[in-house]
TrEMBL record, chains A, B:
GO terms for molecular function: ornithine cyclodeaminase activity. It comes from Sphingobium lignivorans. The keyword Lyase applies. This is Ornithine cyclodeaminase. InterPro entries: NAD(P)-bd_dom_sf, ODC_Mu_crystall, ODC_N. The keyword Lyase applies. Gene3D superfamilies: NAD(P)-binding Rossmann-like Domain, ornithine cyclodeaminase, domain 1.
Amino acid sequence: MMRLVHHHGIEQVLRDLTDEIEADYRRWDLFEKAPRLASHSNDGVIELMPTSDGEVFSFKYVNGHPSNTAKGFQTVAAFGLLARVDTGYPLMLSEMTLLTALRTAATSAMVARHLAPKEARTMAMIGNGAQAEFQALAMKAVIGVREVRLYDIDPAATRKAAANLRGRGLTVVSCESAQTAIEGAQIITTCTADKAYATILTDNMVGAGIHINAIGGDCPGKTELHRDILGRAATFVEFEPQTRIEGEIQQMPADYPVTEFWRVLRGEAPGRTDARQITLFDSVGFAIEDFSALRYIHGKLHGSDFFHQLDMLADPDDPRDLFGMLQRAA
Amino acid sequence: MMRLVHHHGIEQVLRDLTDEIEADYRRWDLFEKAPRLASHSNDGVIELMPTSDGEVFSFKYVNGHPSNTAKGFQTVAAFGLLARVDTGYPLMLSEMTLLTALRTAATSAMVARHLAPKEARTMAMIGNGAQAEFQALAMKAVIGVREVRLYDIDPAATRKAAANLRGRGLTVVSCESAQTAIEGAQIITTCTADKAYATILTDNMVGAGIHINAIGGDCPGKTELHRDILGRAATFVEFEPQTRIEGEIQQMPADYPVTEFWRVLRGEAPGRTDARQITLFDSVGFAIEDFSALRYIHGKLHGSDFFHQLDMLADPDDPRDLFGMLQRAA
C-alpha cells in the first residue's frame, strides 16, 4: 500500500479517492446498506463493515482501541476484502489501516467541497493523531486549504504533525489551545481518540459560517462536540441509522433533523443555504467509502508488483470432490 | 490446512473438533451471538459470521452459490479470522473451505452423540456433494457408525463419495433412491445444495426412532424436509433467532417449539426422551463452531510450518505517526 501511494503521489491518491467516493455516493441507492456489526469490549470495539453494489461485495475489519497507543499498537488497524457477487469468490485482501486514513480524509474533503464556505483556506485541526496529516493534505489537494492550525492536548502529537506537514505547501501553525487553533479558520476538524463523552468544542467557540468536520465521535459513548453546537448547526451524515448510534447526534433526540449527504450530491436536499450557517459533517465512516477505496486500489494493481497471490481458496478439480482433493494431498 | 489435517489424521481432527465445539457449546452464555450478516443476490449469498468469548474474536467469510459448481468453483468457499479482543489485532487468517466441512461434520457428530439412538450404526447420506465424506467419517469417528448408505440425484456424486470412502473401515452402499438409502438407517443426513424449497424427505419415509441430521436447509428459501416431518419431530437448533430465518423451521409458525442444543448439553433441557421419538437437528451452521475450529487450528500452529507470516498491519514506530511511516517509506 505504501509503495502504491508513493507511486501515484499521495495528493493525487487523495483527489482520486475523493472522486471515487463521490461517484459511489451518487449511486447510493444501488448499495446494500446496514449499520456496521460491532463487538464491544472494555478495551475497544471490533467492527465488520460490509456493503455491495450488486456486482462487487466488500467488507472491512476494523478495530478501535484507544488504549492501544500506550501498548505500541495502532488505535485503529484494519484490513478489507473485495469479492465478486456472482460467485462469492474473493478478489483482493488488502491492508486498510493506511487506506482507512486516506479514505476518511477523502470523505471529509468530498463533503467540505460541497458544504464548506467557498473561500475556505484555513482549517483548524483539533486532535493531531494518526489521521491529522491525511486530513490536512486532502483539504489542500481537494479544496485548496492553505493554512492548517494544529492543536492537541499532547504537544508531542502537534510537533509530530507539524514536522510531517513541513515542505508540503501548507502554512502550518502550532497552537497551544483549541481556542487559538480555531482563530480565522473556516473549517474546524475534530479528530480525537478518547472513548468518552468529551467536549472538544464548546458552543461559544463556533462562529457563524463555519464548517465543522467532526471525525472522532464515531462510536456509542464517544462524542466531541457540545450538544448546543448541534442545536445551531445544519447536520449532514453518511447513513442515518448508523450515525444515530455512533455519531455526535447520539446526544440528541431521535427526531433531531439530519440530512444524508448523498441527497445533497443528487440535488434532492439543500446543502449550505447561507454564508452564516454552521454546517456540520457528523462523520462516523461508512462501508461505501471502504468499498470505493478498495475498488480504487484493486484497479491500480493490474500490471504492478504491489500485490502477491494468496493461496486461500480450496481448488479441487471437481468442486464436489473436496474430500478427494484432501485425500490426494496426503 | 491439508498438511495440518494429514499430520494429525482426519479422524483424530474430527474427534478433536467435536470435543472443542462441545466444550464451547457448554460455555454458550459467554459468547456474543448475533444472526449472521447475509448479503443475498440472485446467484447466492455472502455471509459474515462473527462471535467472541470476550477474549478472542472470530469471524468467517463464507459464500453459498449453488450455481458455482457448473462454473468449476466451490458452492461454498470460506476463510476466517481470529483476533485478540484486548487489542483488536488479528492473530490468524485461515482458509475455511476445508475447515468448514470439517467443523460442520464435527457439529453433526456432537449432536448425534447426544440425540441419536444409542445403537445407531447405519447412516443414510442423502446428497453426496462436498460435505458427504466428512459427515460419514465424523459419524464413524465420534459415534461408531459402521455403514453409510449413499444417495444423490446425480449418480456421479454417489460414485465419487463411494470411491473416496473406500478403505476407511466403513461399509458403503450406493443406492438408487432416497427410499432405498434410508432402509435400516438410524440416522438420516440430508445435505443437498439446491437453493429452493425442496422435499428431500417426505413424511412417510421417516420412521420412529430416527435421528435426522438436516444440513442442507440453511438459508431463506432453502429447505429439504416436508413440513409434516417437523410436525412429528423434536427439533433441536444451534441459535434459535438464526435458525428461524435460515433453517427447516422457516416453514413453520414462529411459535413452533425448538430447543437450543447447548441447553441439552448443560442439562437444562431434555434431549431424546423416548426410543421411538424422531429427533431432528435443524443445522444451519453457527459462528461458535467456526470460533472453536479456528482456535483449534491456531493451537496446532506453534512450532509447525503450516503457516506463514502476513504483512497486513501497519506498524509505525509511533502509533500516532502513521503518516511519518508512509513518508519514510518513500
